[in-house]
Amino acid sequence: MLKTNRVGYWYGDAENKLFENVNLEFLKGRLYSIIGKSGSGKTTFLSLIAGLARPSEGSIEFNGRELSKIGLLNYRKKCVSMVFQSYNLFSYMSAIENILTAMSITGSKNAGNKKYVLEMLDQVGIDEASAKRRVSRLSGGQQQRVAIVRTMCCDAQLVVADEPTGNLDETSTKDVLSLLQKIAHEQQKCVILVTHELDVAKACDSVIELHQKKFEYV
Amino acid sequence: MNFVKRAFLNVKVKMGRSLLLFLVMSAILLFVLAGIIIQQAANSAVSSAKKSANATVTLAASREQAFKKVSRQSGTRPKLTLPSVSIATAKKIASSGYVKSYNISNSASVNASSFSAIETSSSSQQGPQGAGAQEQQSGDITLSGVSNTAQLTTFSSGGSKIVEGRGIKASDADTNNVTVEKQLAKENNLKVGSTISIKNTSKKVTKLKIIGIYKASSTENSGFGMMQNDPSNTIYSSVEKVNSIKGTSGKATSVTFTMNNPANAKKFIKSAKKQLSSSKFALTADDSTYRSILTPLNNVSSFANKIVWLVGIAGTIILALIVILMVRERRYEIGVLLSLGEKRWKVIAQFFSELLLIMAVSSIVALIGGKFLGNTVSNQLIQQTTSATSSLTVGSNQNQGPQAGGSGLSQGQANVGNANRKGIGQNKQLQSLDVNISLAAFLKLLGFGLFIILLATLLGTINVLLLEPRRILIS
Ligand SMILES: Nc1ncnc2c1ncn2[C@@H]1O[C@H](COP(=O)(O)OP(=O)(O)OP(=O)(O)O)[C@@H](O)[C@H]1O
Ligand SMILES: [Mg+2]
């Protein structure tokens, strides 16, 4: 599904590359985790495959088409969906409004289907009352589950998550992790997450470590 | 959820911030509206002043040119002969689009025959002197030929009034019809319908029929200064009658053109001069009434204009700063929108819509408050400007006095009298400066408000255009 061809990246100075010659392939129906030391460039790499920035060298292909051909805006809209450590929901909206907004922007096939969204939220343990409350009044675990349901409701085949469990306790971490597994295995999407927690990494289908400018399968 | 819906929701949920924006926006719009209202009121007052204030241009022999000739003929006794204006030429000039109406006038000095003229001490003293200087002025009665008495300034300004019968009209052209002064009529027992007779300089008797009696203004003395006898001795007739009595034809002493629009007096003079081949004639404009009204109104108008622009600029800056802060605070929201693939212009459109929504409410508040504010400000402004200009007109009269010099003290006094009357009239007009919110003013306000928030949004959201969506990942 996603392929990187000799991808390299640096901020400003080409002498200080964060990583170079990265050749990785991510397949649909699988859950990947990327681990590595703090400051090694994991988030930076994620931003490249999420279409938030262009690689300094090399190219990235999505289903055989280069991202630059698809157009980053279009790619973000149609192909990729993101989950963040700090949830990044629209604080002035309810859970259901957040998801409906994302669906309408990305043009998801279920756009506007409130019932579908409520069902999906119910599956992750968020009842209708909570779904209609402003998200800033939900707990961190609940908010992250809303963020993941947002991803599930959008049609994007690729899901990238930067430390999605970073702010959560053990139970919430398990909930979120099982949801991400569900997305990979049941929805047959490709999920790539960055994590510091070994337990989380171990629960993934593949673990890739960024170490000394190189990505290696563990 | 599209950006309009998002804007609605945001304004509703973030009540505190919306309220703050609402207050700022109301204040800005209030001032803009007050400015617009005053401006419009001043503009409409200017146009009504244009209609009500008559500017006239008088075509007459140029005294300057006549005097030049006199001084060249050195040795001989100086004799001032003023050329008369041809009525045909005057009519040609009057066909110009600038002219609303015109009044032809001439005069003849005649002697009362079937009645007696009013004698005052001043006229009996001045009489012989006048006769010595100018043969023409030997009579005790001035027969003043006009095309229409109603158009004479002494009548239109309300100084002289028709008290019985009617004044001279264009239809009186080839008749014996005349209008006499009330005092003269009383002394001689004359009534409307009475017939009188006069003698011209060659003792020829002419019969005249009284069709109206007028009351002369108390201050006015028909422009002839002290040389002229009592104002009651002026009899108005048609121009043609005066010509036939004098033995001339198609001639006039002066022609007064009333302008359609006082602002065009200068343009009219220019075009009329081309039609007048001779430099023996002069065209003089009297648009002082119009100007004295115009100046304070233009001051008000330009002040209002400045208010609108100043408030507009200040408002744009204030709003832009608020939007910048708002954008900073909502960076993550913007980042998420961008990460979802929302177009940047739609993000900016959301901010604009939020401001637009608040502006809609603010403009209603401004509408309520604007009338009040506009009234207060414009009243104060008018008080200031009128007091300033009335002191100015007095000043200019004092300057005129010495200039007029020997030509006659009475003329100077008459001018002061005129100026005072004009001053009062002008105050009346300005006190009623109508402050009303028209639909046009409201639309103008909306347009201005729209422009302000558009500019503020653009200035405030440049950040959004530059924002890297990746920033939301690295928090
Ligand atoms: N915009 C930027 N400009 C310059 N340097 C940057 C920028 N963003 C990140 N960096 C640097 O690039 C390096 C990699 O950053 P990145 O956030 O990708 O690391 P990370 O692996 O995600 O770290 P962490 O595990 O702490 O999240 C860091 O040294 C960081 O300081
Ligand atoms: Mg990181």
TrEMBL record, chain A:
UniProt KW keywords: ATP-binding, Nucleotide-binding, Transport
GO MF annotation terms: ATP binding; ATP hydrolysis activity; transmembrane transporter activity
Source organism, top-level taxon: Bacteria
Record's signal peptide: none
Matches recorded under InterPro entries: AAA+_ATPase, ABC_transporter-like_ATP-bd, ABC_transporter-like_CS, ABC_transpr_LolD-like, MacB-like_ATP-bd, P-loop_NTPase
Gene3D superfamilies named among the record's database cross-references: P-loop containing nucleotide triphosphate hydrolases
Entry GO terms, CC: plasma membrane
Domain ABC transporter: from-to ranges: 2-218
Pfam families, per database record: ABC_tran
Family stated for the protein in its record: Belongs to the ABC transporter superfamily.
Protein name as it appears in the record: Peptide ABC transporter ATPase
Organism: Liquorilactobacillus oeni DSM 19972
UniProtKB/TrEMBL annotation, chain B:
Compartments, as annotated in UniProt: Cell membrane
Superkingdom field: Bacteria
Major localization listed first in the record, in broad terms: membrane
Coiled-coil ranges from the UniProt annotation: none
Transmembrane regions: 307-327, 347-368, 445-467
Annotated signal peptide: none
Keywords: Cell membrane, Membrane, Transmembrane, Transmembrane helix
Name used for this protein in its record: ABC superfamily ATP binding cassette transporter, membrane protein
Stored Pfam families: FtsX (PF02687)
Organism in which the protein naturally occurs: Liquorilactobacillus oeni DSM 19972
GO molecular function, one term: transmembrane transporter activity
